[in-house]
Design brief:
2 domains; six-stranded mixed sheet; 34% helix; 21% strand; binds zinc ion
Amino acid sequence: MGATLEEHLVATRKGRYDSYLAFLRIPSISALPQHAEDCRRAAQWLADALTEAGLEHAEVAETGGRPVVYADWLHAPDAPTVLVYGHYDVQPVDPLELWTSPPFEPIIVGDRLLARGAADDKGHVHAHVMAAEALLTTRGALPVNVKYVFEGEEESGSENLDRWLAANAKRLAADVVIISDTGFFEGNRPAITIGLRGLMYAQIDVVGTPVDVHSGGYGGVVENPVNALAQIIAALKGPDGRIRIPGFYDNVVALTEAERAAIAALPFDEEAFRQRLGVPALVGEVGYSVLERKGARPTLDVNGIWGGFMGEGSKTIIPAHAHAKVSCRLVTAQDPARIFEAFRAYVEEIAPPGVTTTVRQLGGGRPSLTPQDHPATQAAARALEATFGQAPVYIREGGSIPVCASFDSILGLPVVLLGFSQPDEHAHAPNEWIDLNNYETGIRMFARMWDELAVLPR
Ligand SMILES: [Zn+2]
């Protein structure tokens, strides 16, 4: 008799780590043009690993930007088809001096593996490949049909993905999408993310005189663009944390009493959270808890502001122009295009006379919300509990994975967000790490997930 899945995974651990580390050594930073070749190298590495695992039709598919890696296994005629999404690209690594070891020279310290991408998102991607390898080696088959789509531009805006998804919609037909790019709740508690916020990103440009002018000679008669911009920004949000743009909240789906109760029941220590952030107080929209404000309510924040004299000492001018970048995190069912229009109209309305104020959109992504009682979500809950030994909590993440909404709108598929990185993984920051126990158990969890999906009534 052949080895069981568990015996196989125990016996192959060393080789698996070698492979994971090799993947992490490729600096596939999608945002930086000088790493374009590294992204291709990572894509090819991944396609080869998928083939080696026994998956078929592995392909480095062109998108116009960083390629998508596709592979499938479609020999379970009576079982559902799952589309797996992850990304092989990583965030830039600066500030480099804050890393305790070089970001692309992964090291294992105790149970921790340290490297850029260890958690976000190469850990999940690699775990999926290893789960398929273990199932195909020990059983000769997967319990479900699986199509893998591993993106290379997630960390730089997924610019080409929607077009690629639409062009390949037929080939990508499936019953459900599993996105593995999220993590567990505080205290490394298994979690399923059911909500993700969307994004509206804009820039405000305020222009006065063609060039800077003398503040003595012209102060009091021309509008100062920096003052004007400050006035505009101050009017965007009230002291109660409410955003004042007319119509901003129109399409926000209110939290139900049951949802509020579920969020309130999450094991969350507000004071510890505040202390970890090092701030004197937590702030936000009146009438909502910290977790509600952080995951289930929309926001508006200035991300950057500049204009005028910023050197040492003093220079007496009225600056010619001022600028700000502003982003809104959106919740279901706010539409980024409509929110931008409302934002633009309001800024133009409140802009003081004497300056020219323009607003342009820099980016956007739709929010998403998965029903907690969807059979695939419940299958994921069973897979997590069976492998990690604890029932998952359901959480709403403050961040955005725009592709989540794309799978819904372009392919019409339900999405389950199933990842296992620990909450304090330092994703996007120096010293990113993953708990290798999460990674190892995560492989078993994915294998179990396919078994759980295979037995769902169709
Ligand atoms: Zn990610």
